[in-house]
Design goal:
single chain, alpha/beta, eight-stranded mixed sheet, three-stranded parallel sheet, 11 helices, 47% helix, 16% strand
Length: 296
């Protein structure tokens, strides 16, 4: 089952990461067309002018390891600086798991310095996505728990495949962990306070129809129509002049961004303190062991 596989990763999360280098493949035709590939992220020119497609490709569950976080930030920075790219469709290379979220192995059995580095990378990805001047459309073609849900919530529009095996939500409480305030704020900005409070307390994972009803996603379509639906939505958004849309987006999102920017170091220390607790480490170790036993 897709959800059982992706539970190995929990959370998810914008420019202080510069260490990993991306391998670039041959360029394609058309203005701004390109194909950039790393081990865990694939960027392709979309079928429409001005559109790029970013694909998660970190098997088996697209967990956000430190390496993947770094590659994503670098890929997003390159796209942000590419004036020929006006919009980005974000999806998984292989259907089944869109993005599982934070890699639990990065948060278990490591030292505080590693936890701090990892959480800073999570913050950086969120800031990159949430502040992007591009139109971001999530084409959700798989399970999308925790950090995967957070990443999709940073997008301007979310289209989800209508598959009963796919669920989406911030389910941190199910593992005894609290979603940070900026996770909470991102969800509240999307679905409203009451719906967000209930979903966060219960750690609810919503199937497509319920996710649409609550407002976590904007559209649910048959799986075979997902990419065409995402491109259709992208065309509608790109019909708006970039400067007007970008300024409006900044106006709406700046207060949420400012909250994290002002408290960034305190948030890192809070995460390190929480994740370093013996009770949390024991819970994570037990959970990972159960997953290994299931896999075996």
């Amino acid at each position: 089952m897709a959800l059982a596989a992706c539970v190995r990763a929990l959370f998810l999360p914008g420019a202080r990461l510069r260490s990993a280098a991306l391998g670039r493949a041959t360029t394609g035709g058309g203005e701004g067309a390109r194909r950039a590939m790393s081990h865990r992220v694939l960027v392709e020119a979309g079928p429409a002018a001005g559109v790029a497609v970013l694909k998660f490709r970190n098997p088996p569950v697209n967990a956000l390891s430190l390496e993947m976080l770094t590659e994503l930030v670098i890929s997003l920075e390159k796209l942000e600086n590419d004036k020929a790219v006006r919009g980005i469709v974000i999806t998984a290379e292989n259907p089944g798991i869109f993005l599982a979220g934070l890699d639990l192995t990065e948060m278990c059995g490591r030292n505080p310095a590693h936890y701090a580095k990892y959480w800073e990378a999570v913050q950086e990805l969120w800031l990159r996505l949430y502040q992007s001047s591009k139109v971001l459309v999530a084409a959700i073609n798989g399970a999308c728990p925790a950090g995967g849900c957070l990443a999709s919530l940073t997008c301007d529009y979310r289209v989800m495949a209508d598959n009963p095996k796919y669920t989406i939500g911030l389910n941190e409480t199910q593992l005894g962990i609290i979603a940070p305030f900026w996770f909470k704020d991102t969800l509240v900005n999307t679905v409203g306070h009451r719906a967000a409070e209930q979903a966060l307390q219960l750690g609810t994972l919503f199937p497509p129809a319920k996710a649409l009803q609550v407002g976590i996603v904007d559209q649910v379509v048959p799986e075979e129509q997902l990419q065409s639906a995402a491109l259709s939505v992208m065309a509608q958004w790109l019909a708006i002049p970039d400067h007007a849309r970008q300024l409006t987006k900044t106006m709406m999102r700046k207060p949420t961004v400012d909250q994290l920017v002002k408290q960034r170091e305190a948030d890192i220390q809070s995460f390190v303190g929480l994740i370093s607790q013996d009770s949390i480490q024991r819970a994570l170790q037990t959970y990972l062991q159960k997953l290994r036993q299931k896999k075996g």
